[in-house]
Design goal:
- Helices cover 29% and strands 25% of the residues.
- By secondary structure, it is an alpha+beta fold.
- It has a single domain (10-191), classed as Gcn5-related N-acetyltransferase (GNAT) (Aminopeptidase).
- It has an 8-stranded mixed sheet, with helices on both faces.
- Helix 1 (26-34) packs across helix 2 (51-64) and helix 3 (112-125) packs parallel to helix 4.
- The longest helix is centred in the first third of the chain and has 14 residues, at 51-64.
- Bound molecules: coenzyme A (COA).
- Residues 39, 42-43, 101-103, 108-114, 137, 141-144, 146-147 line the site of coenzyme A (COA).
- Coenzyme A binds next to strand 5, helix 3 and helix 4.
Length: 197
């Protein structure tokens, strides 16, 4: 029987080292993005005002990994691994993997999210028990929606549809974008049919 999907504790993309959040990352996360109102504008948590909040969050993220269903990871520069430039969280929901992501503001628009998200979805969809990857964002969050749109186009059967969530800018009535990517062969196996035309 196949073992459950897990994000690797450490992996490399072309430009980045992505690894499990460590309790010692608190200070770098606080300095990098946790207090930034622009980075947190469309997130579901408020900017931190005190280092202790970020340290506690980093410890919690590190512990969550043990549960085998939530994999919070930081994105570091390959050439300067001590420099944290963002974060990706993968959550296992049955046969699906759901993502959250952010990038430090001074690295926006340089392809960080695209590169790391593509690696993550390729990895997830190559696992025999995963047939879908997904993410949600506020409808006003055009940058994140674009990351999702590109991820959706990447895989055969990519879909772009709508769901709802609550962010710092929205209320329960806000309508975010939602992207999903479906692995044709795996989904076909699971549903007893082929998605290929
Ligand atoms: C969303 C976010 C992670 C994107 O990260 P990034 O590394 O800057 O994204 P990329 O550089 O890979 O760009 C992805 C695409 O979005 C586009 N894009 C980036 N910023 C944009 C903006 N402000 N407006 C419109 N498009 C934008 C890029 O041009 C690119 O599209 P292209 O390849 O067609 O040119 C980053 O903006 C961020 O951290 N935002 C705050 C946190 C957040 O909202 N996270 C998502 C919660 S769902």
């Amino acid at each position: 029987m196949d073992s459950a999907y897990r994000l690797p504790e450490e992996f490399f993309t072309e430009w980045f080292l992505v690894r499990r959040v460590q309790p010692s990352d608190g200070e770098a996360i606080f300095a990098g993005w946790a207090t930034d109102p622009q980075v947190t504008k469309y997130l579901t948590w408020r900017p931190h005002t005190d280092l202790s909040q970020t340290q506690e969050a980093a410890e919690r993220s590190n512990r969550e990994w043990e549960g085998g269903s939530t994999f919070p990871a930081v994105i570091c520069r390959r050439d300067v691994p001590s420099e944290l430039v963002g974060r990706i969280d993968a959550r296992l929901v049955g046969p699906r993997v759901s993502y959250g992501w952010l990038v430090r503001k001074d690295h926006w628009g340089q392809g960080v999210a695209t590169e790391v998200v593509h690696w993550a979805i390729d990895h997830a969809l190559s696992h025999p028990m995963i047939y879908r990857t997904e993410a949600a964002c506020d409808v006003m969050n055009v940058a994140s929606a674009r990351v999702m749109e590109k991820a959706g186009k990447r895989c055969f059967g990519g879909i772009f549809s709508i769901q709802t969530c609550r962010t710092n800018q929205g209320t329960l009535s806000c309508t975010p974008k939602f992207a999903e990517t479906v692995s044709g062969s795996t989904a076909g196996r699971l549903h007893g049919r082929s998605f290929r035309p």
